[in-house]
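Q: My labmate handed me this sequence with no annotations at all. I'd like to see what the chain might look like in three dimensions before we decide whether it's worth expressing. Could you predict it?
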Amino acid sequence: MYLSTNQMLKVTYFQNRFASDNAELKAKAAAEGRTVAATVHTEWSWAEITNMVMDRSKCATFTAHDADAYSKAKQKFDAVVIAQMIEGGARSASNVIAHYAVVLDIDDGISVQDVQKDLSQYEYVLYSSGGTGIKHGERFRVILPLAKTLSAEQWADYSESLKKRFHYSDASFSKSLQIQYLPQLNTAHADKFVSHHNQGHWLDVQADIEFVQPIQKAAYINPLVPVQYDFGDSLDQLVNDLIQHNAGQLEYERRRILGNHMKAAGFNDGQMLAVLNVVGRPGAEKSGQKMLGMANASYGDIKGLYKYLPAGYVMPMPQVKLSFMDVKPAVLNSKSKYDYELFLNADQYLSDVADQFKIERGVNLMGAVCGGGKSYYWSKQDDVLMVCPLLSIVSQNQREGAEFNNLKEGGVGTYQQLYSIKNDKVNHAKYSKMTLVVDEAHGLYLDSGFKASTNKMVMDCFSLFKSVVLMSGTVCPEYFSNIKFTNVIRVNKEQQFEKVLHRQYCENDVVGTAIEHIQQSKNKMVILLNDKNEIAVLKRKCKGKRFIEITADTKDTEEVQAFLKDPVLSHFNYDGVIGTNSIVEGLNINDVVDQADVIVIGSCSPERVQQVTHRFRKVTGTIHTHHFTDGLVLDNVQVIDSTDLVQLAMSNAELMNKRIAAMSTSRRNSYVNSYRRESRDEMIYWDGKCFQVSYTWVDHEMAEQRADRAANDFSHYAQELSQYGFKFVQPGRRVRVADLVEERAAVKADVREQHESTVDLLVSQWVDGEFVPNAETDIADAKVQRNHVHSFINRGLSRADVPEYLNRLKVDKQYWQRLNGDLNSLAGNAVRDFIIAQLPQYLVSYGKGQQGLTAQGKRDLAESVVQFVLRDRFDGDWVRMKGTNWCSVMASDPHPNSDPYNTEKDVDHLMNGADKSADAVLNRFITMGKSQRARINKKAERITPVLYTSLTGFDLISGQPATTGIQSQAVQQFRVELVKSVAAPVMPDVVHVPDVVTQQPANEAAKSNARSFLSKARKR
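A: Here is what I predict for the chain of 1020 residues:
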């Protein structure tokens, strides 16, 4: 948002870097006949700050030709914190009240031009730092005023977010208190001084910057304690290199920091003294011994040593000394008490203790440890049907002589096979006397993100059977919100191997950091990386390793099928298996080895860590599981009970059902069709008659919460895994990272080329309105896409539009989603109807008969859409709306803001201030082109053309050929006629809706808490 240049900003001014406002310190100095440099609490207008930067005559000056002269001059530089601080207090972060600007401090690494390009949309001033011309590279500061001030607490919450967004700045700018020097002109290098004022939107941190959880210390332990490194003999060479590169050059501050880095890297006292004694400048006041005494590993970092070594220096890779830690196991939830608890010896299986438990009528839960033979046991039982999530598990447990994956005839099949049972009503009486076993039942909540309908169907089938057994090695009864278990069985087994968990927090690229470890490992490996493109990157980088890749795309290849039949890595000369979540189930690696590595890259729940670790079945010594994640650690993740989510879902369903009860049939049909697909965000679904609670989505939300908590709270993460027998090494930070720029570029090009080649093949196969594939040249991807096209044709896509659809799909791999959205809207879309009705008052004409939206018009239209959805879909309840995917475009708090440190007046809009939000809203329903420069009433404007008033422009009802461009004369005429037809719209019978809800009933605290949880989850 553009704010007045007269807007006032609170500023705390320091006469120099030694200034203080502390009354006690001033009194002490006065008693000693000294004075303390002044601290002034004031406020400046943005215009004053701009003039201070842009008018060189107002800049303080100094003259320095070398680093020594600059260092002395710097002691007198005046500085500011553009923040309000408590007067009379110490210069401490605890005394900051509110921040009014972000001030970036950039020391080389990026050019002024690149920063100007990055910040082009924002209001800011930029000026050279005092070290310009003396130190290497471009050095400058940037002041970005804030549209909304941030309290000290809010600033702390967004510190990591700011560092990620402005990664090119020295990270110190994001501290709660960091003084920044005002413009200082070095007369010796005046020609190098630059300043620039850019006019634009004032930065709104909460709306414009992606939120990243701040780093906090865990309550029980700091999980980032200094790691103990072992360099071996290579450390002596590192000591010599530090001495040679820095001898006699370091002033006090750099020498002190070097001591911290060496301490953190594991140098002993003798090695540190050898360096610190000789790197100080001649006449240094502090001896090497005193500097050693000041060294603190907590403030050091091994990667900091690079600043004291020649450019391009390759530091020896140390071994991290294992330091085991005690983890107190989680207290067993009272709900998780077992009816039967069995213990197997190393050579025993479930079949050996089958007489020691009983299956009851209703739903039974069997938590059986990996390797206990549970799947094999149940697949051989009479009057039992067993369903599995993967064909590989079906194959391993297929009954002798039975047809593969035929549940009705063979007794074992995939989850999808239950559709045949559900529809086989003639035999329902037979099934009512049988037991259904659901293998890998954790997928019923973990995998609902992509197969919710299948999971719901599985659970709907429970009532068809006498008994149901949900079976998994990592499942608890409280993980299911709508199942009352009649029986809970726990099966434990003695482990033949030790499991050690290494949690690695990565400072940089997580995949690149993991690759550093993978390249050095000599053990057989299983690598879990749930991203197919990143798997391709890893394989390119690790050319010296030979992996078999198992994903949904490769599982049916001859190579993978051969390995699954004989899962011994050494038989195929493989170093390991790499794959997505497809490898956490149904894969048993039978190499007999003493040591093995499991590499988990990225966010992963404790359940999946346990599951993937047990892919190795015959390790005789230790499995080392290395979990690489980003460097964020949080201790206070919000925890919510499933009961609260169920109550919230019930409330949401009730609200929706009340909403449609007052509607006519046609209005109700259109309304339901408009919103039912996004209702899963509220954990409800449309059953054809009314909205119901989706318990599969409630369970999935709870699983996501547990995974989020484990990712950010190491204490909880360790407690969860301790119940599976893991030992834990002290978590540590990893700083070495492999450069993957070339590999990622190559993979991206390969993926694009493969996609375009597939679409070109489809185009060649489309002949006279039909696909005519050639068996010799056909490929699997083309078959999948043909099935999609046939489905689209059956739903309303004209065969005449297929070539145009394929052309667009070639350009945009995800274009099928837009076509699918239009097909879903054939039964009505209230939001699109609203947009079409509103368009005439926002469209402007430009050029030769063209029409589009100005930047402000586009934003106003998008705002009206969000307001319409708030009232039409959410009955005016903006808190409820923020618990859905609409939160990505909504302002942080649409209510009038009472924050005394907010520089903006009452907020009367719903949409956030991000420039792309308007496009994100409108492109959900219509199609807009790229913005372009045009003159409107002799004034230059950016205009965004409206290409189609749908997502594709295809005529899906009458089957007419596709419009190829809204700016052609024929299509322009279509637009004119369309606008005429909606210029005076008649809206369907819409019931009255109230204004925005401002308070909730006092007895709905639980639902309010649940809505807050969902809002934060959607934002992440």
